[in-house]
Amino acid sequence: MKLDIRQFSSKDEGFRKDLNQLLSWESVSDASVQKSVEDIVNRVRTEGDAALVELTNRFDRRSVQSAAELVIEADELAKAVERVDSAIVDALKQAAERVKSYHERQIQPSWQYEESNGTVLGQQITPLDRVGVYVPGGKAAYPSSVLMNVMPAKVAGVAEIVMVVPTPDNVVNDIVLAAAHVAGVDRVITVGGAQAVAALAYGTETVPKVDKIVGPGNIYVATAKRMVFGACGIDMIAGPSEILVVSDGQSNPDWIAMDLFSQAEHDEDAQSILISTDADFITKVKESMERQIEDMSRKEIIKTSLEGRGALIHVDSMEEAIEVANIVAAEHLELSIENPEEWVSKIRHAGAIFMGRYTPEALGDYCAGPNHVLPTSGTARFSSPLGVYDFQKRSSIIYCSHEGASELAKIASPLARGESLEAHAVSAEFRMIDNA
Ligand SMILES: NC(=O)c1ccc[n+]([C@@H]2O[C@H](COP(=O)([O-])OP(=O)(O)OC[C@H]3O[C@@H](n4cnc5c(N)ncnc54)[C@H](O)[C@@H]3O)[C@@H](O)[C@H]2O)c1
Ligand SMILES: N[C@H](CO)Cc1c[nH]c[nH+]1
Ligand SMILES: [Zn+2]
């Protein structure tokens, strides 16, 4: 199958402009999506379960009579494990263990220090009380996303985890439920889209209000998450998947072609880019893609994605490749090169960096250990992978000895008076040793 993928060379006139245009794609949060999400969120907020049931029946083509039918309790999740192929259950358990072990290294302890006058300052870390995990389920089921969202919450010590997942046409995916059991979810509610986000943010008779909603989803989910932020926390707005492969031309072209496919197959809007210092290698990868796509079950999605947002870029040097990679700030960056450790410190913006020829992004999606919920659309410039820190919050701790209070009041008092806030000044001055 011929693939009409954009090809650039850094020598081309207007290369930077073309590159910026390639990256300037924005999710279609158009007015109609915005309006319908607003209506859905408002309805769930005011009508509760009744709206949740009606919207779920409409958007997921179901026919439930009451919200109670949407709930799957923990004992039912355990039964799902028995219905799943034991090889898959084993793989889920191994993946969960690896993700847990990686995230345990992210735990941030509380800390404090004491000054010479006895004043103690510190930071106390507490887990969130109740979290809502959105697991996408409209077009495909994602058991791996259950693990990636739930394991860091468990490691952080979140007391209650409510998972939502749509079950279109009433089809429940047992692997998703088994993953929820393996990860330790307390309760699953089979709702999706903006109505699920609104139910978690505001609470209904059946869905408990949560402190934070995490997890990826389509444009309706992302728009709803933006809208409810403030009523509860959110992790990030994760858009369509992206992969950027930097190659020195020495890898197997078939492997690189498949790595590019691996993200293209997620979504028509996914982005796959190859940058190489070797023009002949780029040609070989393109030929391999045209050959291998014939055998792909999701070939139509792959083709649309590659022809819409894919690109093959020839650069003059590794320095230039790294410079372009930093502009792209991809969700996933593969350094398919001989000495990745020599270049990795020059990468300033990427959600996850996959080092060397034997580290395909797909291993990170399932089981390497790091999280697969990552910043997309260039947001790796300022945000990080989902992690334990997303499920913890910090409180400052301040204990003043009498002597310490006296010393601090000498600083605070003039500053308070400078702000014309007399009560602040006097409150501090009361604690001064001379005034006691
Ligand atoms: N970044 C990650 O880690 C990651 C992981 C897995 C999936 N994903 C992405 O998540 C997305 C999942 O999308 P999806 O659609 O398959 O599932 P989804 O669960 O996000 O959305 C399905 C829901 O969308 C709502 N919806 C659909 N059409 C609607 C309409 N016209 N009006 C109002 N609501 C409507 C319905 O309520 C439905 O339940 C994909 O883009 C996929 O690539 C990302
Ligand atoms: N690559 C996706 C995140 O960008 C996650 C995923 C789930 N399953 C397979 N892949
Ligand atoms: Zn993936």
TrEMBL record:
Its cofactor is Zn(2+). Substrate binds at S241, Q263, H266, H332, D365, E419, H424. One of its GO terms (molecular function) is zinc ion binding. Transmembrane segments: none annotated. Keywords: Amino-acid biosynthesis, Histidine biosynthesis, Metal-binding, NAD, Oxidoreductase, Zinc. Zn(2+) binds at Q263, H266, D365, H424. InterPro entries: Ald_DH/histidinol_DH, Histidinol_DH_CS, Histidinol_DH_monofunct, Hstdl_DH. Its EC number is 1.1.1.23. It catalyses: L-histidinol + 2 NAD(+) + H2O = L-histidine + 2 NADH + 3 H(+). Binds 1 zinc ion per subunit. GO terms for biological process: L-histidine biosynthetic process. The keyword Zinc applies. NAD(+) binds at Y134, Q195, N218. The active site is at E331, H332. SUPFAM superfamilies: ALDH-like (SSF53720). NCBIfam families: hisD (TIGR00069). Catalyzes the sequential NAD-dependent oxidations of L-histidinol to L-histidinaldehyde and then to L-histidine. This is Histidinol dehydrogenase. The lineage of its organism: Bacteria, Pseudomonadati, Pseudomonadota, Gammaproteobacteria, Oceanospirillales.
